[in-house]
Design a protein that fits this description.
49% helix, alpha+beta, two-stranded antiparallel ribbon, 4 strands, 181 residues, Jann2411-like fold, two-stranded antiparallel sheet, 6 helices, elongated
Length: 181
């Protein structure tokens, strides 16, 4: 299970700093995003599904937000995530792919929509229960609303663009203060 799916899904919100739109607001954008994630079943982007996924995203974001702030999650968000996870029994499938073994958890008895939600919920738990949960942070750019899992100890931004914006703003502030002095 890919923990990156949880962060990718949480980051489907519109973000002024990153200049991206809300992936769940538009059927075409959602379909492109969904197809870029082969671990998810291909589902039709109906209005009802998108509404359901917006609720799931709200819970995932609330849990990740509290994790990034080093605070425990609310029991309501955890309860809703657990309800999604309880919808399936699972089994494991072993495959030999590209010269290595891959172990995949396979949910049973779910519709494609239910499986979609289950996979996102499971990826969220994998992220938080694993060693990378402590590396989760919210992008430090003032207008950015995205999450990032730190790859380096001093990483503070979700993208080079956010880091550049912050550094440029600091530079112009120093220049402005010098000129005013």
């Amino acid at each position: 299970m890919s923990w990156g799916l949880a962060v990718d899904f949480a980051n489907t919100v519109a973000c002024q700093a990153c200049r991206c739109s809300d992936v769940l607001s538009d059927p075409e954008t959602f379909t492109r995003w969904n197809r870029a994630h082969p671990e998810l079943p291909d589902v039709s982007a109906t209005t009802a599904l998108r509404g359901d996924l917006i609720s799931l995203r709200r819970d995932v974001r609330a849990i990740l937000e509290r994790q990034a702030a080093k605070r425990p999650p609310t029991s309501a968000s955890v309860g809703r995530l657990n309800r999604v996870l309880r919808t399936s029994s699972t089994h494991w499938r072993a495959e030999f792919v590209e010269r290595r073994w891959v172990l995949t958890e396979v949910p049973e008895g779910l519709s494609p929509t239910q499986e979609w939600r289950w996979r996102v919920a499971r990826a969220t738990v994998d992220l938080l229960a694993g060693t990378l949960g402590g590396k989760l942070l919210k992008c430090r750019a003032p207008t950015c609303d995205h999450f990032v899992v730190r790859r380096m100890r001093d990483q503070l931004w979700c993208s080079p663009a956010c880091g550049n914006r912050v550094r440029v703003a600091r530079h112009y502030e120093r220049v402005r203060r010098r000129a005013a002095a």
